[in-house]
Design brief:
By secondary structure, the protein is α/β, with parallel strands linked by helices. 39% of the residues lie in helices and 18% in strands. It contains eleven helices and 16 strands. The strands form five sheets. The protein has an eight-stranded parallel beta barrel, surrounded by seven helices. Strand 14 and strand 15 form a beta hairpin. The model has no long low-confidence stretch (mean pLDDT 96).
């Protein structure tokens, strides 16, 4: 397994809006189709958000999740489905967590702390909005905190522990790693932690090589070398530089239209599969191979 790395693919997320790319999927059948294609391209884990099929707005509707999951599973029974509990701006913790008891996924994202969530610069870059919700959604983030308090975190972890779901711990800043350390010491986290370094969000840590090293060195110091698994990515144009650096550090990678809309500078990505294919090409240039879903489950301790 020394040259195997897990490729995670985040299909649609809740940051980008349909006005930003005609290729961003928001109908359940399109989200599922892109997920299937990403898995066929080499992704062992698929990160799933739901959206309103009429407007593209982030949604917590479990019926939409059901349609996405059923469609993926009809075509691929092996790929890991990592359901979000981050949801979208303004959702309650209970809404965000509702996917876990309903679907009991093997893996679910879980945000490891609060941050200022500054998406407002996006609004100035879009000349024509397709849907009425989009511009206010971004404008509100000048005064918005993505809230993940210790009470929220404990609720999320208890929900996951009760349903046999492993948390993928989304760490946006160094302080979140200290939160993870607290969770481990308090006995809230079961098994080997799986961290996702989310770099480059306005309001949290940047996405330079130095920021990635700060996260890795802090995780090593707090949790112990070899005592956790981790993946990393940078938002936007930092996606592939951070992913490539993380390969050399021994970690896994994440790509997808949730985080980055371009295949290269000035070239929009026409699908999530294209982003996965590029990541796999980069990996193979350095003699790394994408882990299969079965290999990824073994690494992450999933049953």
């Amino acid at each position: 397994m020394s040259n195997k790395r897990i490729v995670n693919c985040a299909i649609t997320g809740s940051i980008h809006c349909p006005s930003m790319s005609p290729y961003l999927p928001y109908k359940p059948e399109d989200i599922a189709r892109q997920a299937i294609d990403a898995a066929n391209a080499g992704a062992a884990s698929i990160h799933i958000h739901a959206r309103n099929p009429e407007t593209g707005a982030p949604s917590s509707d479990l019926a939409i999740y059901q349609q996405i999951i059923d469609t993926i599973r009809a075509a691929n029974k092996d790929v890991i489905l990592c359901l979000t509990t981050g949801g979208g701006l303004g959702m309650t913790v209970q809404q965000r967590a509702s996917v876990v008891p309903r679907f009991k996924p093997q893996l679910a994202s879980m945000n490891a702390g609060s941050i200022n969530w500054g998406l407002f610069p996006i609004a100035s870059k879009i000349k024509n909005f397709k849907f009425d919700w989009e511009k206010p959604y971004y404008a509100m983030t000048t005064d918005f905190i993505f809230k993940n308090t210790f009470a929220d975190i404990e609720f999320m972890l208890q929900t996951m522990n009760e349903n046999g779901t492993k948390p993928e711990l989304e760490c946006y800043d160094v302080g979140h790693l200290y939160n993870v350390k607290y969770m481990v010491d308090a006995g809230l986290l079961k098994g080997k932690p799986y961290l996702q370094f989310v770099l480059g969000i306005n309001g949290a840590l940047g996405a330079s090589p130095y920021d990635l090293m700060a996260m890795k060195e802090t995780a090593d110091r707090l949790l112990g070398v070899g005592c956790y698994e981790w993946s990393a990515f940078g938002a936007g144009r930092f996606e592939y530089p951070i992913c490539t650096q993380n390969l050399f550090l021994g970690g896994h990678v994440r790509v997808g239209l949730e985080d980055n809309l371009n295949l290269s500078r000035g070239v929009p990505a026409a699908s999530n599969a294209h982003l996965v294919e590029k990541m796999v090409r980069i990996m193979r240039e350095f003699d790394y191979e994408p882990a299969s879903p079965a290999e990824a489950k073994e690494v992450l301790g999933l049953v």
